[in-house]
DNA sequence: CCTGGGTTTCCTGCTT
DNA sequence: CAAGCAGGAAACCCAG
């Protein structure tokens, strides 16, 4: 059983690593989504990233550091890796404000010290850790009720960076919710933790993955669409394509919408999603989902 | 090694 | 009939 699973899930590295290879099983059915099914950004030198890999890297950066998606204008990074590598620090700060120089250092680190083919996303954090000024005088966000955090150590400074400049609105959970309770515990543990262990190494959670597709329309080739933006209602247009994209992210080629939707249904109980009765492929963000509102920052 | 969170996989039954 | 939806149950994976 395990062997079978592994044999299915492991994608041949020789297919993925080559920067110009698009001969994966993902390419053919969704040719309109060029770049969506190629090697992941951390497998390839940034110089050879396509636009999607640049987007992946950015998304990973935002997710890993739990930044608000509005911190960075994704449209400013609708570029290839070649262009990304040639951008100056000024270009980065122009495109991403205060976060720009962290991104710049991250990409410099990847350019010169990247470990391609290794899924460990160290460069995202190492640079941040070494490049930050002293924030000892700054009030930590955790004390202001900002509870939903998946990464608490290395990237702490970058979060401060973003939030100090964007005045993020904290979210407040009810005591009945089990999900935030665990996050509270993590927050309380944070001051004791100084190590470099990463939380959520598999990347974003499913709902965040969905949210980020919705938030980057220029990278969303008709996969999911807002039905009611202000209410957080959205609909899957290409359910199987989204499932495959999710599977791609999790290195699981057997992902289907049926399985993805089961995971989505688990979110109802945690109030990350709310049921939308009678409408197929339609979901609604719940009160424990954050980062999807237009003016949430 | 153990545990818990977050899925992933499979399944049965129901609905559109 | 096909495609989705609802959840239960169990397995899996991984960080702590």
Question: Unreliable stretches, pLDDT < 50, 5 or more residues?
Answer: 1-38, 117-202
Note the gap between the termini.
45 Å
Q: Domains counted in the coordinates: how many?
A: 2
Structural class: mainly alpha
How large is the count of helical segments? 12
Share in β-strands: 5-15%
Strand order, sheet with most strands:
1-2-4-3
How much helicity do the residues have? Answer: 40-55%
The succession of helices and strands, N to C, reads: HHHHHHHHHHEEHHEE
| C-alpha-based Rg, rounded | 19 Å
**Which descriptor suits the 3D outline?**
globular
- How can the largest sheet be summarized? 4 strands, antiparallel
Secondary structure tally: strands: 4
The CATH homologous superfamily of the largest domain is termed Transcription Factor, Ets-1
Average pLDDT works out at: 62
Supply the CATH architecture of the largest domain.
Orthogonal Bundle
CATH topology group of the largest domain? DNA polymerase, domain 1
